[in-house]
Description:
Number of strands: 0
Largest sheet: none
Strand content: under 5%
Distance between the termini: 11 Å
Mean pLDDT: 87
Amino acid sequence: MLTINELRDRYREAWLVARRVPSGINLGHASYWPEFNPNRWEVYHSEDARIKSAPPSADAVDRMVECMRWLRWLSEEERELVWLRAGGLSWRDIAKKSGLSRMTASRYWRKAMMHVILRQNQ
Length: 122
């Protein structure tokens, strides 16, 4: 049986995995530019560039899909609250986006978490 904190952590992990999963969208465009092989100076100057993170593991994707399935038990407003909170937004930012007060948003989020926990235990 999951607790609210464990469920919160699962949704946070699902949010992070969802950002790393490749979209798989192929627009059908081709590049006619020649292949670029940088010289050592260009490589040296690009060392500060951000490195793309590796794709998530299959287990992480499976856990993300499981969390997504749990969202279907919630209303659209509850889903949005759960996903915004999983994204790491503060209650103040969530309140601005949802049009609720901070305490009300927190209360609705907790209610949504409890709803998921209760449905899992059925």
